[in-house]
Amino acid sequence: MSNLSLFLAVFLTGIVLVVAGLGLALLLSPKSFNPQKGEPYECGIPTHGTSWMQFKAGYYLYAILYLMFDVEAIFLFPWATIVRDLGMNGLVSILFFLLILSLGLAYAWRKGVLKWK
Amino acid sequence: MILNYSQPLELSKLTSWIDTALQSALPGFWVLFIELLLVGIALLAAYAVIAIILIYVERKVTAFFQARVGPNRVGKYGIFQTIADVLKILIKEIIQINRVDKFLFFTAPFFMVVASMLTFGVIPFGQGLQAIDFNIGVLYVTAVSSLGIIGVLLAGWSSNNKYSMIGAMRSGAQFVSYELSAGFALMTMVVLSGTMQLGEMVETQRYCWNIFNGHLASLVAFVIYLISGHAETNRGPFDLPEAESELTAGYHTEYSGLQFGFFYLAEYLNMFIIAAIAATVFLGGWMPVQIWGWDAFNQLMWYIPSYVWFFGKVGVLIFFSLWVRWSFPRLRIDQLLNLEWKYLLPINLVNILIMVLIVLSGLTLTDIFGK
After folding, report:
1. Is the dihedral of CA B251, B254, B259, B261 positive or negative?
2. How large is the greatest C-alpha to C-alpha distance in chain B, in angstroms?
3. Which residue of A has its CA nearest to B89?
4. CA angle, B139 as apex, B133 and B142 as ends, to 5°?
5. DSSP class of residue B75?
6. Rounded distance, CA B276 to CA B363, Å?
7. Contact status of B248 with chain A (Cβ, < 8 Å)
8. Residue range B18-38, pLDDT digits in tens
9. CB A28 within 8 A of CB B87
10. How far is A82 from chain B (nearest CA, A)?
């Protein structure tokens, strides 16, 4: 069996689990209507306004940093697989790569991005 | 001494028997179809059974750490408690909230469950008991498990609830940060094993588990992976996305009935998956413990079925994770992010280089002692 068909089978299994579960729950569960019930629960008192508003930028900076390192990780994985074959030359080449990567982190650190304000 | 690697109790014989029986009876297309269906059913059954057992175990172990009895009314020792809970959650009403983003609200549980199911599919549960064996297994695991965070963010955003929003944002920052550490820790082991395929990775640990093979560097990577695994599953001291005393319940506050149940399910399965990946990559997966030179002992260990080894290791890791969970106070978000970016990540980068040096200079245990 090819990996792709197996992958699709597992993917569909996940979808089927949720759909079947929700379908069964809709069949079994009681239904009642009440205008109060449709309100967002939040913490028990009526909510003020919408929650879809501007949000703290700190999270965004961490997301940018993550993006930087995650893209690097994609480049590092193939090197990690064949590290024995590449030997010392490979290590020296990747060392420059890691150096630039760490400089990025050092820059962000110095700039105070890692400080939660 | 040449070890006898075939055991009487292996399930791989059953699967190959089913395959040959189907091949002889049916044309090719139907064999493929039925086998895919069987894989799906087997995964679904394993998924449900593991979740049910895990919830029971979690409650009992929690009770043990808090010096109480835990569930003990439904059945002997309360073993049917989880089944009763599942039935209860099935017959609870799924409340329709007025001001939510309906489509995204409905989609979020799909992301959670499908992400954990896709990761679940590549775990080698035992000899020949692996649904998919990608040659980029480790990369696939890190990629697919991070799909779950989309579900969390969708749930928090679509709920139109400020606490959900804060919980989802915290969860997002926490997950993407610790995802890096987990990825780099796994990469350290890829350096050691020289392969990303999970099945092959287990095979390379036949004589020596990875955690011993790479000396201290392996151990550091293992500890980092466990810490980031805890953080990724929002458990232990890192449970601030759903901190019940500040955020009611975080990103799934507005969910009710089975829709909430799926978040709960995915959370428990993620705990299992983290433990399973840790066991596979660091602790030799289904490989029994082997000691160099002790041939009789090694042969004896091989008589224990592979799935017993696998679930034994996973059980130990899960117990450890619960122990950590009930022993440490919750972190603050700045402490959490500092721990990752200022400590774990730099340590991790240095650790990879140390591991590369160990591998290149031939100092791993399998290099020193031979096979």
Report:
1. positive
2. 71
3. A25
4. 110
5. S
6. 27
7. yes
8. 778 877 777 777 888 888 888
9. no
10. 6
Helices (H), B215-294: 215-232, 244-247, 257-281
Report H helices in chain B: 12-25, 28-65, 81-90, 102-120, 137-145, 148-158, 162-193, 198-204, 210-213, 215-232, 244-247, 257-281, 295-302, 306-325, 333-338, 345-360, 365-369
Q: What's the CATH number for A3-110?
A: 1.20.58
Pick the residue from chain B with its C-alpha nearest to A81.
Answer: B194
List the 67-126 stretch of B: residues with Cβ below 8 A of A: 90-100, 109-110, 113-114, 116-118, 120-121
Residue B1 has pLDDT above 50, yes or no: no
pLDDT digits (tens, 9 = 90+) for B58-115: 889 989 988 888 888 888 888 888 888 888 888 888 887 777 788 888 888 899 899 9
pLDDT digits (tens, 9 = 90+) for B154-211: 888 888 888 888 888 888 888 888 888 898 999 999 988 888 888 888 888 888 888 8
pLDDT in tens, A39-60: 777 666 777 777 777 777 777 8
Chain-chain contact of B114 with A14 (C-beta, under 8 angstroms): yes
DSSP-based three-state secondary structure for B283: coil
- Quote the tokens at residue B219: 């151990």
ipTM of the complex: 0.86
Per domain, the residue ranges of chain A are 3-110
Name residues 167-206 of chain B within 8 A of A (Cβ): 169, 172-173, 176-177, 179-180, 183-184, 187, 190-191, 194-196
Q: Considering chain B, what is the average pLDDT of its residues? A: 84
Q: Rounded to the nearest 5°, which phi and psi values hold at B250?
A: 75, -140
Nearest CA in chain A to B117: A14
The predicted pLDDT at position B6 comes to 64
How far is it, in rounded angstroms, from Cα B322 to Cα B65?
Answer: 9
